[in-house]
From TrEMBL, chain A:
It is found in: Cell envelope. This is ABC transporter substrate-binding protein. Residues 1-21 form the signal peptide. The keyword Cytoplasm does not apply. Keywords: Signal. GO terms for cellular component: cell envelope.
């Protein structure tokens, strides 16, 4: 009877696909190329919180953070090579360049090291990529807009930093959303560079030439600037999709308190760094069924829950979320088709 | 011979001896600081002192050493090149695109860029322009061209370059052989040939050279062309290691190269440079800035500042010793 119990427990363990190997002796390093803005600071904070606990709980032996002195590619390539020499078992990386680090990444893989990239991903096939589903985020923006503006109307789109894959993906999602909702029409498009000041200037410049706007679809970090531009021009306030920044959510709350203003907010959580950490841990755990490209959900807030999140965000910061091991296992499961 | 004369002679000998000792110390300093950094690394991470370790730690030092030699040539002529970093980036972009897909075009463009460097030398000499201003301007030109060639990071290094940089000779790691080769070739060319003396002389005493009938225009052109040549080698070596390019890939090299020349015993004026020292200086900087820092386990908030502190300490040792010489 007892034997049966043990056997069935073992079978259950194998079936769940986790805990195949012990990772308590494994060391994971984090290679980061830049720490100079609020998003990166939040990213490092989240990573620190999650990994400190993981080390204390003896899930892994060490999880050290390394930030390069400059944003340069060769510096980070050298850093990765040093981490190989240090004998780390896995490297979590936010890379300075998608292609130019491939040489160093390949060397790491050849040395038997697991490499998990996120945010700034690397294209070397041997590495894992944790990518946020930006396309779906763009599509969802239009879906949400349809709820707030059921009659449809004219939309203004604010784009992000030109030439980046993130800008491309969100834009493509928005176009898909508009195709599914023909009641909406994008009548203007400006470049906001994910920056409130840039967005405000860009929107203020195009505003006089636009017909009436019912909504703004954007990429985050630009919603508050757009709101300021509309207020300065004395135009009626449209439904502006927000991007989880503290100033954006604060403005949303002010408007909601005033007249019940409704909108929706979404962006990539800086805490995705902690998700990348857990993915690395899962690979070290012996899982071989993890796809190298992992699409993970973005962080969204609705009319009901954004006020609860607002006090937790630092002044001038971004909403974040620390992921757990279960989150990572669920995200991996969602990606195995 | 009177007693006073003997005393004078002795004094002269002793000061000469002191000067010789200081000169020796100065020429040994780059090797000494490299040994110190290596000792620190060996102590922090014994695993790094191995064939594999040296191959990894030093392979990115090769493009830095080449860029440092490039910078050394202009410094030998009392000039400064602030565009070498972006020039390396430009060469990298050409290497990862045209040199692979259309080798002939790539070679023409790279040779042409060396020609541009030679022309810059001529321009700086004939119009008596400050090289800092001209090369600062050129740094934006190279950067702009690099972005034009490769708007998004990517491209791929030619296969022959990849296999060259991944070459694994027996016993001695490739980066060490490459560093030796660079140091010896440039040392012979600049320190042991008669035209090398003229080149250094153009920085040491230009007026005397001119009176002796040498063309200062020619020396300046040759020095700048050599800078361009080694800049091209640096960019190609870098892409051979990273396998793919980015328009901003070389930006950090400008200041690193200047620091490497100074650390290697060079002076900003007077044509006093040392190729062997410059290569050692570049290796020291590359090791001190990255592997040493990574192995020290400094809290992330302090890593950036610690990098600067290490550079200052290494350079300060050099300044202390050269002051004793005076």
């Amino acid at each position: 009877m007892k034997k049966l119990l043990v056997l069935s427990a073992l079978a259950a363990m194998l079936a769940s696909g986790t805990a195949l190997a012990d990772t308590s002796g494994k060391k994971i390093a984090f290679s980061n190329n830049y720490a100079g803005n609020s998003w990166r600071q939040a990213m490092l904070d989240s990573y620190g919180i999650v990994t400190k606990k993981a080390v204390a709980d003896k899930v892994v032996a060490a999880a050290d953070i390394f930030t390069t002195a400059d944003k340069e590619v060769p510096t980070q390539a050298a850093q990765v090579q040093n981490l190989i020499l240090q004998g780390y078992d896995a490297i979590v990386i936010n890379a300075a360049s998608p292609d130019a680090l491939n040489g160093a990444i390949k060397q790491a893989c050849d040395a038997g090291i697991v490499v998990v990239s996120f945010d700034g991903i690397v294209t070397e096939p041997c590495a894992y990529r944790v990518v946020v589903d930006f396309k779906d985020m763009g599509r969802q923006e239009v879906e949400q807009m349809a709820k707030f503006q059921p009659k449809g109307g004219n939309l203004l789109e604010i784009r992000g930093l030109a030439g980046t894959s993130i800008d491309d993906a969100i834009h493509a999602g928005i176009l898909e959303g508009v195709a599914a909702h023909p009641e909406f029409k994008i009548v203007g498009s400006v470049t906001g560079d994910w920056d409130q000041t840039t967005a405000q200037k860009a929107v203020a410049t195009i505003l006089p030439s636009l017909p009436d706007i019912v909504g703004i679809v954007d990429q985050g970090g630009d919603g508050y600037g757009a709101a300021q531009a509309f207020a300065a021009a004395g135009k009626p306030r449209p439904t502006i999709i927000m991007g989880n920044r503290q100033d954006e959510l604060k403005w949303w709350k002010e408007q909601k308190d005033k007249d019940g203003y409704q909108t929706w907010s979404a962006s990539i959580a800086p805490g995705v760094s902690s998700l990348a950490f857990w993915v690395a841990q899962q690979v070290l755990d012996g899982r071989t069924d993890i796809p190298h490209d992992l699409l993970v959900p973005y962080l969204a807030f609705t009319q009901d829950d954004f006020e609860a999140a607002l006090p937790k965000i630092k002044e001038g910061g971004v909403a974040t979320h620390e992921y757990t091991q279960e989150d990572a296992i669920a995200a991996i499961k969602a990606n195995i088709k | 011979m009177t007693a006073a004369a003997i005393e004078n002679q002795l004094k002269g000998a002793s000061t000469r001896n002191a000067a010789a000792r200081a000169r020796l110390l100065r020429s040994l300093l780059p090797a000494l600081s490299l040994a110190l950094v290596l000792l620190a690394i060996a102590w922090l991470n014994p695993r790094a002192i191995s064939y594999f370790g040296f191959s990894l730690m030093l392979n990115l030092a090769i493009p830095i050493a080449l860029a440092t030699i490039a910078q050394m040539f202009v410094i030998a002529g009392n000039e400064l090149d602030l565009s070498i970093g972006t020039f390396v980036g430009f060469v990298g972009c050409v290497t990862a695109t045209w040199l692979k897909d259309a080798p002939l075009l790539g070679i023409v463009v790279l040779a042409g860029s060396i020609g541009v460097y030679a022309l810059l030398g001529a321009l700086i000499h004939m119009r008596n322009l400050p090289s800092i201003v001209v090369t600062l301007g050129m740094s934006f030109v190279w950067q702009g061209l690099a972005i034009l060639i490769l708007p998004k990071p990517g491209g791929k290094a030619p296969d022959w370059l990849l296999s060259l940089m991944a070459f694994k000779p027996p016993f001695i790691p490739f980066p060490i052989i490459a560093a030796l080769l660079i140091a010896v070739v440039v040392h012979f060319g600049l320190m042991r040939t008669s035209y090398g003396v003229i080149l250094r002389g153009s920085g040491g005493n230009a007026a005397a050279l001119k009176r002796a009938g040498w063309s200062l225009l020619k020396t300046k052109i040759v020095l700048f062309a050599l800078t361009g040549l080694f800049g091209v080698l640096s960019g190609m070596a870098l892409i051979g290691i990273t396998t793919s390019a980015d328009a901003n890939i070389g930006n950090g090299y400008t200041l690193l190269a200047i620091a490497g020349v100074i650390l290697g015993g060079g002076e900003f004026v007077g044509g006093r440079v040392s190729p062997i020292g410059a290569v050692l200086g570049a290796l020291t900087l590359a090791l001190a800035a990255s592997p040493l820092l990574t192995f020290m386990h400094i809290p992330p908030d302090w890593q950036v500042a610690a990098n600067g502190a290490i550079l200052i300490i290494v350079l300060a040792a050099r300044v202390l010793i050269s002051r004793r010489e005076r």
